[in-house]
Amino acid sequence: MNILSQDIQYLSGVGPSRKKILGEELGIFTYGDLLNNYPYKYVDRSKVYTVHELTGDMPFVQIVGKILSFETFQMGPRKERVVAHFSDGTGIMDLVWFQGGKYAKQTYHIGVDYIVFGKPTVFNNRINVTHPDIDRADTLELSTMGMQPYYSTTEKMKKMGMTSRTIERITKSLLERLTTPLPETLPAFITNRLRLVSRDTAFRHVHYPKTADEMSHARQRLKFEELFYVQLNILRYASDQRRKYRGYVFSRVGDLFNTFYRDYLPFPLTGAQKRVIREIRTDMGSGRQMNRLLQGDVGSGKTLVALMSMLIALDNGYQACIMAPTEILAEQHLATIREFLKDMPIRVELLTGIVKGKKRREVLQGIADGSVQILVGTHAVIEDTVQFLHLGFVVVDEQHRFGVAQRAKLWGKSANPPHVLVMTATPIPRTLAMTIYGDLDVSVIDELPPGRKPVVTIHKYDNQMTSLYQGIRQQIHQGRQVYIVFPLIQESEKIDLKNLEDGFEVLKQVFPEFRLSKVHGKMKPADKEAEMQKFVSVETQILVATTVIEVGVNVPNASVMVILDAQRFGLSQLHQLRGRVGRGADQSFCVLITPLKLSEETRKRIDIMCDTNDGFRIAEADLKLRGPGDLEGTQQSGMAFDLKIADIARDGQLVQMARDEAQKIIDDDPECQSPKYAILWYRLRQLRKTNINWAAIS
Ligand code: ADP
Ligand code: MG
Fold it and tell me: Which residues lie below 8 Å from residue 577, measured CB to CB, with a gap of 6+?
């Protein structure tokens, strides 16, 4: 039996109660799980500083000395600050507790040798360390190794007295027990060429590095391995898919496409649009099934690209379908497409939850007999019992929630899988795209239609509303329209809706001379549509809304986007919302309203927004600030991120390396049969078996 699947309870220091809590809190059941539980940080304990040496601008340091005395300062009715005066003979410094001072006084004793660890600051001309880590100097046998690992623990573990130290100890005893080297899981030609340390060394050094170098080499190896198998899995999936399914061959450049291009196109295509249409056309004629991701910032004209690609499908005798994430957007697509096509002889129909009764039966009938050529719908279309006569092309709009699993569903819709184009206005950083959409080819529209002025973004505090109202008034008097967005999240839906209702009443009083519309996700679709329509037809000048307008809504006359409580929105959401304006030729504005007090992270987000309109920069920043795990929808993408050590945002270069290596192997051995790579295919099978998330894609 593989020693790594051994039950954790056989380890010294792990009894039934620790076994239970390790399983419940950290998901650690086996030796292997424990090995894969990596430290989240390390602290260099190879050097001991003296108090005399300390300054206010050092990183974390450790000092060995004694507590001379305690002092307690009352800071409020129930608040106190506890200070321990601490010395190592070279000087005196203060250890400070704003919380847990009582506990510190009970736990630490005057005259005992302690190792104090923390970040020195200067306060009242004295070195201070606030909330230090303290160990008795004589128990510090573990830390003599140099770099001390820190492991995550939970509240419940802390209550049971299980600390990072406890984990450090049991991990150490596991490493001692592993007397034979752990088997290698990467082929030598990779580890040699990329100079990666062996798996055995990596595990030992990641938990127990003597130097910073050992630590970083170990982490490098483990990160690479993790990313490499993710990429190998994705690329193998894509290659299997390609070999299994033939794509429809759209060889004709037909009448509809040409007529539209010649007689109906209201403006010249941008260079980027032309290039992307060419890419799509080539792909659809190649005989293999297209799986393409189309990235283009808001307003870059993706809808038109989608429409022209659909015309190619129609010209070759197939049906096409475009799916939007919401009913409002589906309806808007329908309107846009009909407007573009004017009197061209093409049957375009809508199918969403609100299409009912006789109309629904007619549409379904038309889809089945092939007379409906372009179907516009929500994602319900793929869940539904909709049967196409010959669906050849599917466009999925505005979705980074449309992963491998959802796409796979489409393939039941026709004999061969249709060509698929996934469009997203949320630019996805390359490394993330390689992972979520790793099996897709990517096209990018990196050019906006001419004449667009970049949106000017302004940050205002919520005590400056009067001047904001004045600005809004001016814009409307110039004939423009205005969006005012309230946050609404599920967790506080009731309060948020009330906020919106109250806010709407206030705004009606502020702007008695204008007419206002109101839209939110809890309204009946028909009412929502009616309100939207009023705004579109300029019957109302102000649209008060929640994020239902986040994606896709197109009202070129709207020139101001006000986002209230902007601190509650994520960067990509803010960028999407801002993309609703700046669609006409006029100068547009986006105003972000926040309270005065902001966290540092929020301030960064607001600054980035005011700084740039570049969606890719914003996406990169978002990924760095939030981490990929938080990115909306990555969970459902079918390629969930339970990376344990690698970080898609920070390890971009490694992602690329892993991708390149995996690609070389798939190119060399597309059938995955070669004994040269046996170790890889074996490992991949193992990983798929042990990890639910991996299973989702295979
Ligand atoms: P996206 O879906 O990429 O956010 P849209 O497809 O909604 O962008 O296009 C935004 C606006 O730009 C629409 O009003 C569209 O008609 C217009 N548009 C698209 N392509 C061009 C072009 N080449 N020249 C001028 N305007 C364009
Ligand atoms: Mg769009």
Answer: 483, 485, 547, 549, 550, 561, 563, 569, 590
